[in-house]
């Protein structure tokens, strides 16, 4: 079927205005699995400005009839998804379409799910990017906004939710209040026997909704969820001049949802994994809170003011990403986030979570061949297929980082003034990058047009490298951006300066923080003795790699978990990461740092950020610091490289840095160094082993452990070295478990238990936990942990199909079905592998979630030789299934089903041949391009000489 082009959308928008949709959906037979379709009746009132012709989009099972101004249209003229409307004249028109549409099990259009726990059926819509055409006829482009009146007929016992307040008319019929003017992709319906928790706030109805089988778990978390929702809602009202623009606020937790959530106005849909049925960490709860705030931000950024064309998707996602973290930091209640687990350490700044769990997503995407500007040139997004590719770490994490830097550079007062001007000018309408920049320019005298050109229209990650020189009572800091280039992005960074504890202890003490601009060259002199650790971009307020000075680098590697600020620790981890990636630090040193410091990390969200470009020389009076950290507070977007002394300080003393955000910055620096081939993976592991036992921030622990396991052990370490890496990580996790025996930190203990399962090489301890139903000293094994252990035992060839069947009988829920699919695909048995392969590629029977679970189980590092024969088949079959099942399934096939554990030149060669000689769909091509780039990077890291 043809996709909509930008030129076609512009032509149609010049010809017509759309006023109102009246949509009637008949879902009465939805619970019957033999019924594959539903009835859809649509009336569209629109006007034409001139004589002409256009088309309406729909993807029906059957087009029964269509009339334009009462005159029948030829239904056989439907061309793919387009029905031509000829003979339009200036003035008002009415189009009526009667069709049957198909239910989906891919998470697109009208998704249907039957709960295996109780047999109940649920429906919800996901209408983003051309999928409205699967539910009703529409002029499907974001700048043809209209009022929507939706009526749904469903089984009498069901509840129907929609964008507006719904009224039950009897006989299974529900009518939703008309919406304000919104885009077609934002229309939403959810129908089923929902369990609901309802309240009011500021005179508006609020609701939480989930499947009945999840009701006890929603009830357990309802107070927390509503507290967060109310607090964020109030904070948005304090921040924005425009009030919330819709008549209600429902949040529906729906099954088999492809994304994290969707910002449908008045009816936000979330993946129902956010209704926790097993134990979770405080970080996971905070991540849920950020998602709630992110989607609420969309009510203004995206719903009230909507992009005109998909090249400006960043106007939706970058802003929601930034505001989600910022509003969560400002507004969430201590009761909601700090006291959810008795005895857990206090919840930390969400920006530390961003640094360690989110920012690296942007850095990694920005260093692949598929990189693109935050705001790409409109010509680079010629159609909807190309637009769909840009929902990635650049549009989200890099865009949010750029906005955080903009706030630092511009000032929050002027930034918010510009935002409120933007809303006032464009509410219930559409806007572009140029419109947004003009609104900012109205609020400030600074040259925001040049800033936007440098930050939003360019690609790549800047690297900030610091050098520290000391003479007498004065020391000098040079921050060099990418070899001293003076063009490109301006940065304003926070520099953190750290000394050894004068009492002779291992801790690092913050001497000072100061801000400096990094456009070209600046000189600043500092007093005092030489610090033990200097962290550029200490608070991570810019976007660039950092390089520590040599002494600071060693301090970080040795004492990373002692850095007091979790955000600073995240910056340090990012610096080490960059050095490994760039060949400046041996990966082994990064691994060692992780093994050393993660057991002591207290902050869950260590920055993976990297720092800014330009050359800055800063001279300071006083002795030479032990550690200088550029981007210390992580307010820019760049890799950082410490000076040599700071690098050594970081490796040796990272856990002694007082600020968790600074520690996150430092860990991110180490991570980047590993990825860039500048730090041996073994050094990262050594740093983790040294500092994690002392790390107080859980986000840092989770971030470092995840990178050390999924990247260093599974991809960057060769088969001969992998057992030693797993042993190091296993001992590290056991250290963390021993550290938490007193119950002082249940979130850290749960993280350590999960990590110990992932890296286990012997089945006996896991078998004992499974038999006893608990880890000695806790936690008790909930369904999530039981499936986690069973999956690892399958990989270790220590269990069989009978055990999987028994566990599924114990947990027959949807999550249990996924766990069983994952375990069966992981069985080291030829028949099991063939069955899993056929389920993924030979039929279309698997839902999006069961396909993902099967793909997650299939490829295992321990089974590389056993499954190698499937690699050539993968590339052939992936192309076919992506073409057959569409972009949502292509994302699963190109992501989770890719043979990532097979890090060898043959997998790379076959993939490159696939891209060269076949024609994958755009969604699959983007995924494969990124996967192959990551594979090539892993090969380069493995081939490094390990001397750094």
From TrEMBL:
<dbReference type="InterPro" id="IPR024571">
    <property type="entry name" value="ERAP1-like_C_dom"/>
</dbReference>
<keyword id="KW-0378">Hydrolase</keyword>
<comment type="similarity">
    <text>Belongs to the peptidase M1 family.</text>
</comment>
<keyword id="KW-0645">Protease</keyword>
<dbReference type="InterPro" id="IPR050344">
    <property type="entry name" value="Peptidase_M1_aminopeptidases"/>
</dbReference>
<dbReference type="GO" id="GO:0016285">
    <property type="term" value="F:alanyl aminopeptidase activity"/>
</dbReference>
<feature type="domain" description="ERAP1-like C-terminal">
    <location>
        <begin position="627"/>
        <end position="936"/>
    </location>
</feature>
<dbReference type="InterPro" id="IPR045357">
    <property type="entry name" value="Aminopeptidase_N-like_N"/>
</dbReference>
<keyword id="KW-0862">Zinc</keyword>
<feature type="domain" description="ERAP1-like C-terminal">
    <location>
        <begin position="533"/>
        <end position="617"/>
    </location>
</feature>
<keyword id="KW-0482">Metalloprotease</keyword>
<dbReference type="InterPro" id="IPR042097">
    <property type="entry name" value="Aminopeptidase_N-like_N_sf"/>
</dbReference>
<dbReference type="GO" id="GO:0005615">
    <property type="term" value="C:extracellular space"/>
</dbReference>
<dbReference type="GO" id="GO:0006508">
    <property type="term" value="P:proteolysis"/>
</dbReference>
<dbReference type="InterPro" id="IPR014782">
    <property type="entry name" value="Peptidase_M1_dom"/>
</dbReference>
<dbReference type="InterPro" id="IPR027268">
    <property type="entry name" value="Peptidase_M4/M1_CTD_sf"/>
</dbReference>
<keyword id="KW-0479">Metal-binding</keyword>
<dbReference type="GO" id="GO:0043171">
    <property type="term" value="P:peptide catabolic process"/>
</dbReference>
<keyword id="KW-0031">Aminopeptidase</keyword>
<dbReference type="Pfam" id="PF01433">
    <property type="entry name" value="Peptidase_M1"/>
</dbReference>
<feature type="domain" description="Aminopeptidase N-like N-terminal">
    <location>
        <begin position="90"/>
        <end position="186"/>
    </location>
</feature>
<dbReference type="GO" id="GO:0070006">
    <property type="term" value="F:metalloaminopeptidase activity"/>
</dbReference>
<dbReference type="InterPro" id="IPR001930">
    <property type="entry name" value="Peptidase_M1"/>
</dbReference>
<dbReference type="GO" id="GO:0042277">
    <property type="term" value="F:peptide binding"/>
</dbReference>
<protein>
    <recommendedName>
        <fullName>Aminopeptidase N</fullName>
        <ecNumber>3.4.11.2</ecNumber>
    </recommendedName>
</protein>
<feature type="domain" description="Peptidase M1 membrane alanine aminopeptidase">
    <location>
        <begin position="226"/>
        <end position="455"/>
    </location>
</feature>
<dbReference type="GO" id="GO:0016020">
    <property type="term" value="C:membrane"/>
</dbReference>
<dbReference type="Pfam" id="PF11838">
    <property type="entry name" value="ERAP1_C"/>
</dbReference>
<dbReference type="Pfam" id="PF17900">
    <property type="entry name" value="Peptidase_M1_N"/>
</dbReference>
<dbReference type="GO" id="GO:0005737">
    <property type="term" value="C:cytoplasm"/>
</dbReference>
<dbReference type="InterPro" id="IPR012778">
    <property type="entry name" value="Pept_M1_aminopeptidase"/>
</dbReference>
<dbReference type="GO" id="GO:0008270">
    <property type="term" value="F:zinc ion binding"/>
</dbReference>
């Amino acid at each position: 079927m043809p996709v909509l082009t930008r030129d076609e959308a512009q032509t149609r928008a010049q010809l017509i205005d759309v006023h109102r949709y009246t949509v009637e959906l008949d879902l009465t037979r939805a619970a019957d699995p033999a019924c594959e379709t539903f009835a859809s009746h649509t009336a569209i009132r629109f006007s034409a400005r001139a004589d002409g012709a256009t088309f309406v989009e729909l993807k029906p099972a059957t087009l029964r009839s269509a009339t334009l101004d009462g005159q029948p249209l030829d239904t056989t003229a439907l061309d793919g998804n387009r029905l031509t409307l000829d003979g339009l004249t200036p003035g008002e028109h009415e189009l009526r379409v009667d069709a049957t549409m198909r239910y989906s099990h891919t998470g697109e259009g009208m998704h249907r799910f039957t709960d295996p726990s109780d047999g109940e059926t649920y429906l919800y819509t996901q209408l983003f990017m051309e999928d409205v055409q699967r539910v009703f006829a529409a002029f499907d482009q974001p700048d043809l906004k209209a009022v929507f009146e939706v009526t749904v007929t469903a089984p009498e016992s069901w509840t129907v939710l929609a964008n507006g307040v719904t009224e039950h008319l009897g006989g299974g019929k529900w009518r939703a209040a008309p919406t304000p003017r919104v885009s077609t992709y934002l229309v939403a319906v959810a129908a089923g026997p929902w369990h609901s928790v309802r309240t009011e706030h500021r005179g508006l109805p609020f609701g939480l909704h989930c499947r009945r089988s999840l009701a006890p778990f929603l009830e357990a978390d309802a107070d927390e969820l509503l507290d967060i929702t109310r607090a964020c809602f109030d904070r948005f009202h304090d921040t924005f001049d425009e009030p919330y623009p819709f008549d209600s606020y429902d949040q529906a937790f729906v099954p088999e949802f492809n994304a994290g959530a969707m910002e449908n106005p008045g009816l936000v849909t979330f993946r129902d994994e956010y209704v926790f049925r097993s134990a979770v960490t405080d970080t996971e709860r905070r991540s849920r809170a950020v998602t709630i705030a992110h989607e609420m931000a969309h009510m203004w950024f995206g719903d009230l003011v909507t992009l005109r064309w998909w090249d400006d998707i960043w106007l939706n996602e970058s802003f929601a990403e930034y505001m989600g973290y910022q509003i969560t930091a400002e507004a969430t209640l201590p009761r909601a986030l700090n006291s959810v687990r008795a005895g857990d350490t206090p919840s930390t700044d969400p920006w530390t979570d961003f640094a360690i769990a989110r920012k690296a997503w942007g850095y990694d995407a920005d260093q692949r061949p598929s990189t693109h500007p935050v705001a790409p040139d409109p010509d680079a997004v010629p159609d909807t297929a190309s637009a769909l590719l840009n929902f990635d770490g650049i549009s989200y994490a890099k865009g949010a980082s750029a906005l955080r830097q903009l706030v630092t550079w511009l000032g929050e007062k002027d930034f918010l003034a510009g935002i409120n001007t933007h809303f006032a000018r464009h509410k219930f309408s559409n806007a572009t990058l140029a419109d947004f920049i003009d609104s900012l320019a109205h609020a400030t005298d600074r040259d925001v047009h040049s800033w936007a050109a440098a930050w939003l229209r360019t690609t790549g990650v800047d690297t900030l490298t610091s050098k520290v020189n000391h003479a007498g009572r004065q020391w000098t800091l040079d921050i060099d951006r990418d070899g001293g280039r003076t063009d490109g992005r301006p940065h304003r960074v926070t520099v953190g300066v750290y000394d050894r504890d004068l009492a002779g202890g291992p801790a690092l003490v913050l001497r000072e923080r100061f801000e400096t601009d990094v456009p070209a060259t600046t000189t600043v002199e500092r007093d005092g003795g030489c610090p033990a650790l200097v962290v550029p971009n200490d608070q991570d307020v810019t976007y660039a790699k950092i390089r520590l000075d040599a002494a600071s680098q060693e301090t970080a590697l040795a004492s990373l978990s002692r850095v007091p600020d979790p955000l600073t620790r995240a910056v340090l981890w990012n610096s080490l990461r960059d050095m490994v990636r760039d060949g400046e630090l041996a990966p082994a040193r990064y691994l060692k740092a992780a093994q050393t410091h993660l057991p002591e990390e207290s902050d869950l969200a260590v920055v993976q950020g990297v720092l800014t470009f330009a050359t800055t020389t800063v001279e300071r009076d006083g002795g030479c610091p032990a550690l200088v950290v550029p981007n210390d507070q992580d307010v820019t977007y760049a890799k950082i490289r410490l000076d040599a002394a700071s690098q050594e300080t970081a490796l040796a003393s990272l856990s002694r840095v007082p600020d968790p955000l600074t520690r996150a910055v430092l860990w991110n620096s180490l991570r980047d160094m590993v990825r860039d081939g500048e730090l041996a993976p073994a050094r990262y592991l050594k740093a983790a082993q040294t500092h994690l036992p002392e790390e107080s921030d859980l986000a840092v622990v989770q971030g470092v452990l995840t990178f050390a396991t999924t990247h260093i052990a599974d991809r960057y370490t060769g088969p001969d070295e992998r057992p030693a890496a797993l042993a190091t990580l296993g001992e590290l996790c056991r250290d963390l478990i021993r550290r938490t025996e007193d119950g002082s930190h249940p979130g850290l203990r749960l993280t350590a238990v999960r990590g110990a399962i992932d890296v286990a090489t012997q089945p006996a301890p896991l078998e004992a936990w499974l038999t006893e139903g608990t880890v000695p000293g806790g936690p008790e094994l909930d369904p999530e942990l039981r499936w986690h252990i069973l999956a690892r035992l399958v990989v270790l060839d220590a269990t069989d199909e009978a055990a999987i069947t028994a566990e599924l009988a114990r947990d027959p829920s949807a999550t249990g079905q996924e766990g069983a699919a994952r375990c069966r695909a992981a069985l080291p048995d030829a028949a099991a592998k063939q069955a899993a392969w056929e389920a993924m590629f030979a039929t279309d029977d698997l839902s999006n979630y069961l396909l993902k679970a099967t793909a997650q189980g299939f490829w295992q590092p321990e089974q590389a030789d056993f499954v190698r024969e499937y690699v050539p088949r993968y590339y052939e079959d992936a192309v076919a299934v992506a073409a057959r099942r569409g972009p949502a399934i292509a994302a699963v096939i190109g992501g989770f089903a890719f043979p990532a554990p097979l890090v060898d030149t043959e997998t790379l060669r076959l993939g490159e041949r696939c891209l060269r000689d076949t024609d994958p769909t755009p969604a699959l091509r983007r995924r494969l391009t990124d996967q192959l780039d990551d594979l090539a990077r892993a090969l380069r890291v493995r081939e490094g000489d390990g001397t750094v």
